[in-house]
Amino acid sequence: MKSRFFALALSLLSALAIAADVPWAQGTLKKIAGNKATIDHGPIDSIGMGPMTMQFMVEDATGLAKLKAGDKVRFQAIMAGGDIVVTRIEAAK
Ligand SMILES: [Cu+2]
């Protein structure tokens, strides 16, 4: 019961509280389809993933709207309920 409550609280806070501390990953945006983005990405330390090209669910619709295929990007990804979610994405500096 306690752990279930904790998981719920975590999911509610994911975008705001956790994203601030998540390390940024780098990549090239390959394709955008609705709230999904295909990214050719480097290592993602926050979820222990090596480099590859894959599709992500993107929570940051505002950030994604400013980008287009071919853009170099940086992003924050977390595990949320068994899914990998991009909580923030923006053009790489
Ligand atoms: Cu990947």
Describe the structure in your own words:
By secondary structure, the chain is α+β, with helices and mostly antiparallel strands. The chain is 24% helix and 43% strand. The chain has a single domain (2-91), classed as OB fold (Dihydrolipoamide Acetyltransferase, E2P) (Beta Barrel), CATH 2.40.50. Strands 1-2-3-5-4 form a 5-stranded mixed barrel. The termini are far apart. Bound molecules: copper (II) ion (CU).
Features:
93 residues, five-stranded mixed β-barrel, alpha+beta, binds copper (II) ion, single chain, 24% helix, 2 helices, OB fold (Dihydrolipoamide Acetyltransferase, E2P)
Helix content: 10-25%
Bound small molecules, by name, code or SMILES, are: copper (II) ion
Average residue-wise pLDDT: 88
Give a short account of the largest sheet: 5 strands, mixed, barrel
CATH architectural label: Beta Barrel
Number of helices: 2
- Report the count of strand segments: 5
Write down the domain tally: 1
Instruction: Label the overall shape.
Output: globular
CATH class: Mainly Beta
Termini separation: 44 Å
Q: Report the CATH topology name.
A: OB fold (Dihydrolipoamide Acetyltransferase, E2P)
Question: Structural class, from secondary structure content?
Answer: alpha+beta
